[in-house]
């Protein structure tokens, strides 16, 4: 009896120790953060693995319930590290630098314009294109007799917003724009709105304003243009969404026709198509945050696949990425299953969801401005700039103080 | 365990040695995980706070007290300490007052006592994150837009901290109530009865008999509420996300040696600042230094509180 006990104790002890160790077989692990494509990516990866003789495991961590940015760190410290994982722009690249290998010379590099490059080497495979401008409800604009083609300057927007506001009751509007600037939605302001300062009106590859910002230098004229634009958005914002709304509140206000515009990107498509879809046409107008007239919306690769040199399956990982670009099954997966706007010239399929189709059109026409918001240091946009926007939205800051606070915050980056 | 009847004679040295062996054998399953999962990370955490650690992604170098020195001029960290102090003080007060009141109520001989006890306790069974989302809905949609009790949601106004305390009290008072109930039921009936015969009124009975006899429950409850208040994280995360932001007060800027006002978050508590520093700003070592500082201060506070309360306990 005692021996049995002793055995039991030892077994328990051994179990505890084993549980902390790792297994042996190493499948190709893809670690990604898009909850919405979890199913279709798993399906595609399994089919690809079967055809090529690999075992592929897709792990997803994202959305409200799983913090990707902190979970990925523990994955790197685990016995089995991910082979392919997601990173978003320069800030995260610098954080994970040692876990991302150079991909120069891969076949897919020649087929895209938006691969992630750092100091002359390619490191990131663009997962898709995303874009945002100010999305509009074309039916409501037509009803109010506002021509979307006039929305290319601040004056054009002022006139359009005033017209819509006058007819708010007749059109059933709670506000003209569904704009969010409260706590928890500081990515809308501190990253997406602020990107206008970094890229509006500049060439797609012009990083000068961003480089200055990283050195603590701000451009007052550009900040003032941004402040005018933010003020206009806040003045005409749906008051229930602006400070106390959640992301769902913001999207629903637009989807249900209670606002004519929304300050969001094409990632809201799944929400727009859900539950019966939209009964109106949509389009994008450019953000009037630049110094002159604007004709471009912000389009870029939101995130990239990097390959981890310590993952143990680098060759398989490279093949996986190449096949996605050059095989029809890969195209089918990207455009029709995952609903991506493809980032590669090899893909001729056109996305079908409402805002993605508009982003695709802008991208084809070349009317695009760059994404530099992810080049800011981690936390800077959401934690430092976002609250300043909130204080401007709730009236604590005047426009001049808002500009002053932004430039003061930028100056701290010089340290 | 004691052995009453003499068992067969055993080899002399065997007995003691095998007892010791058994002792360690039984301890192993608890000791090993404790060492691996509590002591080791704790030690590593203290070590990392003296380095430029970035989560194991870059080579780690020793930087001495650099991270700690930065904390003194970190306006967000300093402000969150103040917020946490106010939050903890009010929270301890509210929760214990409400819990003790409820406990007195449900130990009366009322109808449906058990039903009351259960329903006061139930909020404690809901996770903090869920409670946060639930009350966001209650504050914003029900109280503000539905019943028009407020002009705008309390969660974005000046009293967001109070709004948070109300939620946490609602969640935690039921649990503390249980501790008070247990203590109240242990107060001997005969003492109460004797005092009643001597002509003591209800207040005198509470003040001179009940309270001294349940001082132990106060020690435990104050300790629990103080520590949980300091460690509060999840409900803030889902209820207010630390917001709403406000301008930093001038005295704060003087304290940390800065001239211009910056933005601070009105309900951002120390645990939230630590989390943000590590996972939003990717400054793991600084976050770790904050956590160690926080641990030391919390330890001083809670030990002091227990020492103070212990002196007031009486033994029967």
Q: What attributes characterize this protein structure?
A:
heterodimer, A: 415 residues, alpha/beta, D-Maltodextrin-Binding Protein, domain 2, 2 domains, 6-stranded mixed beta sheet, 4-stranded mixed beta sheet, 13 strands, B: 316 residues, mainly alpha, MetI-like fold, two-stranded antiparallel ribbon, 69% helix, 2% strand, globular
Report on the structure:
The complex is a heterodimer of chains A (415) and B (316). Chain A has 415 residues and is an alpha/beta fold. Chain A folds into two domains: 27-129 and 301-347, 3-Layer(aba) Sandwich (D-Maltodextrin-Binding Protein, domain 2); 131-300 and 370-414, 3-Layer(aba) Sandwich (D-Maltodextrin-Binding Protein, domain 2). Chain A contains 19 helices and 13 strands. In chain A, strands 2-1-3-12-5-4 form a six-stranded mixed beta sheet. In chain A, strands 8-9-7-10 form a four-stranded mixed beta sheet. The model of chain A is unreliable at 20-24 (pLDDT under 50). In chain B, 69% of the residues lie in helices and 2% in strands. In chain B, helix 3 (75-106) packs across helix 6 (160-185) and helix 12 (270-279) runs antiparallel to helix 13 (284-310). Chain B has helices at residues 12-48, 66-72, 75-106, 113-121, 128-146, 160-185, 189-197, 202-213, 215-231, 234-239, 250-256, 270-279, 284-310, and strands at 245-247, 263-265. Chain B starts with 11 loop residues before the first helix and ends in a 6-residue tail after the last helix. Chain B has 316 residues and is mostly helical. The chains are: A alpha/beta (415), B mainly alpha (316). The interface between A and B is large, with 42 and 38 residues.
């Amino acid at each position: 009896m005692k021996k049995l006990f002793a055995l039991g104790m030892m077994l328990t002890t051994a179990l505890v120790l084993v549980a902390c160790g790792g297994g042996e077989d190493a499948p190709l692990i893809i670690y990604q953060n898009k909850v919405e494509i979890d199913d279709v990516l798993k399906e595609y990866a399994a089919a690809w693995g079967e055809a090529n003789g690999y075992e592929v495991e897709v792990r997803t961590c994202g959305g409200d319930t799983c913090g990707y940015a902190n979970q990925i760190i523990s994955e790197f410290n685990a016995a089995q590290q991910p082979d392919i994982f997601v990173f978003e722009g320069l800030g995260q690249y610098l954080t994970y630098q040692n876990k991302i290998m150079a991909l120069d010379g891969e076949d897919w590099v020649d087929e895209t314009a938006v691969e992630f490059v750092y100091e002359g080497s390619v490191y990131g495979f663009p997962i898709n294109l995303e874009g945002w401008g100010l999305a509009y409800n074309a039916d409501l604009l037509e009803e109010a007799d506002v021509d979307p083609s006039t929305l290319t300057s601040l004056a054009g927007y002022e006139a359009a917003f005033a017209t819509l506001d006058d007819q708010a009751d007749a059109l059933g509007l709670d506000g003209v724009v569904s704009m969010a600037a409260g706590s928890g939605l500081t990515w809308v302001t501190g990253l997406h709105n602020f990107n206008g300062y970094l890229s509006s009106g500049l060439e797609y590859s012009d990083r000068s304003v961003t480089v200055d910002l990283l050195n603590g230098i701000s451009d007052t004229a550009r900040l003032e243009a941004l402040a005018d634009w933010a003020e206009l958005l806040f003045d005409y914002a749906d008051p229930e969404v602006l400070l106390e709304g959640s992301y769902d509140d913001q999207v629903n206000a637009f989807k249900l026709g209670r606002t004519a515009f929304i300050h969001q990107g094409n990632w809201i498509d799944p929400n727009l198509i859900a539950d019966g879809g939209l009964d109106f046409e949509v389009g994008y107008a450019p953000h009037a945050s630049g110094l002159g007239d604007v004709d471009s919306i912000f389009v870029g690769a939101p995130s990239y696949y990097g390959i981890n040199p310590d993952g143990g399956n680098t060759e398989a990982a490279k093949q996986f990425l190449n096949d996605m670009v050059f095989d029809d099954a890969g195209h089918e997966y990207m455009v029709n299953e995952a609903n991506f706007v493809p980032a590669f010239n090899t893909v001729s399929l056109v996305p079908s969801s409402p805002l993605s189709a508009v982003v695709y059109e802008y991208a084809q026409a070349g009317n695009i401005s760059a994404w530099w918001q992810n080049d800011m240091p981690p936390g800077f946009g959401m934690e430092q700039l976002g609250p300043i926007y909130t204080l401007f939205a709730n009236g604590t800051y005047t426009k001049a103080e808002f500009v002053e606070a932004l430039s003061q915050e930028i100056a701290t980056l010089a340290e | 365990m004691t052995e009453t009847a003499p068992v067969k004679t055993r080899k002399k040295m065997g007995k003691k040695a095998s007892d010791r062996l058994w002792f360690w054998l039984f301890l192993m399953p608890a000791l090993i995980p404790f060492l691996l999962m509590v002591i080791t990370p704790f030690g590593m955490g203290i070590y990392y706070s003296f380095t430029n650690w970035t989560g194991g992604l870059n080579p780690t170098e020793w930087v001495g007290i650099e991270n700690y020195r930065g904390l003194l001029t970190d306006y967000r960290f300093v402000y969150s300490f103040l917020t946490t102090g106010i939050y903890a003080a009010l929270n301890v007060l509210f929760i214990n007052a409400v819990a003790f009141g409820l406990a007195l109520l449900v130990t009366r001989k009322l109808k449906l006592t058990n039903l009351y006890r259960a329903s006061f306790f139930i909020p404690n069974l809901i996770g903090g994150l869920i409670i946060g989302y639930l009350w966001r809905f209650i504050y914003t949609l029900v109280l503000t837009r539905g019943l028009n009790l407020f002009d705008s949601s309390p969660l974005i106004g000046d009293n967001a901290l109070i709004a948070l305390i109300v939620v946490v009290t609602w969640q935690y008072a039921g649990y503390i109530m249980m501790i008070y109930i247990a203590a109240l039921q242990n107060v001997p009936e005969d003492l109460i009865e004797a005092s009643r015969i001597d002509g003591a009124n209800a207040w005198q009975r509470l003040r001179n008999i009940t309270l001294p006899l349940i001082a132990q429950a106060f020690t435990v409850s104050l300790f629990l509420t103080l520590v949980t208040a300091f460690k509060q994280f999840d409900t803030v995360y889902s209820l207010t996300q630390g917001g709403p932001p406000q301008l930093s007060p001038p005295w704060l800027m003087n304290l940390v040696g800065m001239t211009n006002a910056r933005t601070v978050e009105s309900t951002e508590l120390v645990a939230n600042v630590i989390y943000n520093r590590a996972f939003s700003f990717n400054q793991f070592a600084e976050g770790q230094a904050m956590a160690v500082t926080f641990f030391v201060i919390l330890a001083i506070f809670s030990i002091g509180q227990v020492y103070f309360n212990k002196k007031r306990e009486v033994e029967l």
